[in-house]
Amino acid sequence: MYVYVCFDVEDLVHPGSDDVALDIAKALSEDDVTAMMCVVGEKARLWEQRGRDDVIAAVGKHDVGLHTNRHSIHPTIAEYLADKGWDDGVAEAVHQEGPGARDLTRILGMPPSTWGTPGSSW
Ligand SMILES: [Zn+2]
Fold first, then answer.
1. Ligand 1 centroid to 101 CA: how many Å?
2. Cα of 64 to ligand 1 centre, how many Å?
3. Which tens digit of pLDDT belongs to each residue from 62-83?
4. What per-residue string of b and e applies to 45-68 under the rule 16 or more CB within 10 Å gives b?
5. Are 40 and 77 in contact (CB under 8 A)?
């Protein structure tokens, strides 16, 4: 049996949520479970600014996905893609989300394996 374990790491408002990501990442690692941690680019930058090397190290032991660069901060994905077709939409998504992918790679030491969008973004 295969089990897929995935967590959104997206609370940009409450610094206390950093410890939730830390606790989950550490507990799963202790049981040899690798999860998909879908991290918002801004959240990783906040960990870095707050000196949360413990959270970065714990989450970095898991598979990391980009849960957008800025999550619900406007413009959201639906807003910036609303008037776009395929080609210009792809270009706009790369423009908007690229900084998040680059910062996750720099901060967590690995490129994100996926782009996991917020629930109603599509
Ligand atoms: Zn989410």
1. 16
2. 13
3. 999 999 999 988 898 999 999 9
4. bbbbeeebeebbebbbebebbbbb
5. no
